[in-house]
């Protein structure tokens, strides 16, 4: 693919020649060859580069790197046995984590492929739909409102084209585009004859020619020079802070133990390896992998529930969500808009209104919408005598759309849209086939509009104007029009919506309806579907509410009507300020800002490209029930992630602290570094299956939030309990069995690994152990590791780890202590877990 610098300064004819593109577009053969070359030449990470990067990222913990360096240094000093085992265990831990994380990444990519953006192109004179990432240099692209632009392109034709270039310029106000010429040194913000990859069409339509699709695109150059990470979720912040807390504690304890052991004249190399291994054991080094695996498993389960996850970290936010904001169409209603009738200002049926609305819908070329689709389904209409002349596309400021059509040499502009916005263009009204001044009829128009709206009918207005021979029109021509009448449409509530909303409330989520429709239609629907709080705040009401007062008002009100796109963002921001985790479900171009601002951005697979692009989740079925099921899966994922943290902060951390303390008392190191790491490695294996564990029903009934204070309290209580039983084991080994060094290490290794493995089965649920069934893989992994722990000292290769067979009476004593430990954990967990938020 050739780079064409400053292509906006090159005449279109010359650019066509350089790209080899005719007016009919590329041939399929040429496009296929270009796509193959483009994929070959695109600067993306090679397979092995990705593999190696992911593998080595498993060893990025500073403690792991220091331990590996220390083990290597020990080998140079002649300590081959322990050092080799340490390095092998570190390698195996990293490999296990890598395999799981790689599989999780592959699964996520497959899910994302289900909602890839598409675009219309002209090839061999025919317009066809292709995947956006299959656009090649020289393609002729047809753009409509809502499309994300797939390539830096030259504008060939346009109609009122406005593009949001905030991703490039930071400017949120749309930029108008048109064919023409821009000097080579024109700043990006001033270029009018080109559109750029990654920006999106706000309104209008255009035909453009692709010039740069990948690394030569302006967005590609920006992306390669800066690395912009998405903002952290509250869960990610909590995890990061918690990880650093444990690491600081681990390093402090390790340094203290190292200094004391050296002062006690214990072997320096062994002491150094031991304290470093101890520090590694105290830190949740598998936490990133566990989170990725757990989230990926949650994403797969959510996909089965028709919820496609685009951003893994957002699953945690979904579990926290306690307010869902949504429009009504397709979510609360069937989404099958039907034409109910066409009436004049006086309420009489008027077929001319329906015919003109039908013409407008058939000839408009903007983004598809339910109203136009409903009008196109009207039976008995014949438009063969009409031809399209021009169009003024819909936008969210005018809230109307105009087309110019010609029949029998006569041109007519037909406008349809929101009643108030159409009336702004009208000076006359048609009464008995003659035009009259509209001023004396406005009261009748509003009375009829109010009556229709109270019936729950969505009502749009239709007007027209004779255009003589004028064939090119602008927005300024929408004036001096004649009001014709109303088209009424009806979208019935979903049959099971009452039960769905009740189920949503039962999961601790409140629904807030935010609609652009008029207050009367919205109020009728709210009452029909059982929203008890039918106080309505309108867009004009919002303008009068201060920023300080809005959080309380937004919390109190469940129905918003006549809301402008920017006001949706203001409502969400106010709810967030009030301490809520807010979700927003939208599918239109004007919803993109609100979707992006919400804690949980949700769209649907039939939505505008820009809405899907900024969403965290994409629904394959626009339904409250689907969202609720997704929320439950999000909460399951949150709870399963906490289980690993619980284990790491209870048995693991407690055992490591006990080991640190006793190392100051004993004349020998309580465990060798290789034994500490082997213990840590084996205890992490069941943790890798946590993502598939069952979650109690009561644990997902309410929103769940990260609570660092609770985690710290859990760590203290269960850590102390773990240490208590560790010291009981020490007494058993030293004072009852008078264990030597080898027996002491083997006995303690066995007890600590058994308790670390089986404690997960206890603290994974608030219920009694026998009342909650663990996942089959977790149970299997725990039983396997328990069995390995018991028989490991008796295996031929156990000598490499300096583990040797224990007397049966000692093994029975250790098993009894482990059993008592689990019984006590079962008792105290009720007290600790009941306060989880």
Tell how many strands the DSSP assignment holds: 23
Strand content: 15-25%
CATH superfamily of the largest domain: Calcium-transporting ATPase, transmembrane domain
Assigned CATH architecture of the largest domain = Up-down Bundle
- Spatial order of the strands in the main sheet? 8-23-22-21-9-18-20-19
Report mean pLDDT, rounded to a whole number.
84
| First-last Cα distance | 55 Å
Largest sheet: 8 strands, mixed
Principal-axis shape equals elongated
Instruction: Determine Rg (CA atoms, Å).
Output: 34 Å
Would you mind describing this structure in some detail?
By secondary structure, this protein is of the alpha/beta class. It has four domains: 7-48 and 136-225, Calcium-transporting ATPase, cytoplasmic transduction domain A, CATH 2.70.150.10; 62-101 and 232-300 and 631-833, Calcium-transporting ATPase, transmembrane domain; 307-334 and 494-620, 3-Layer(aba) Sandwich (Rossmann fold); 338-490, Calcium-transporting ATPase, cytoplasmic domain N, CATH 3.40.1110. The protein has 28 helices and 23 strands. It has an eight-stranded mixed sheet, sandwiched between helices. Strands 10, 11, 12, 13, 14, 15, 16 and 17 form an eight-stranded mixed sheet that branches. Strand 14 and strand 15 form a beta hairpin. Helix 11 packs across helix 23 (624-663). The longest helix has 40 residues, at 624-663. It is elongated and about 115 Å long. Residues 223-229 have low confidence and may be disordered.
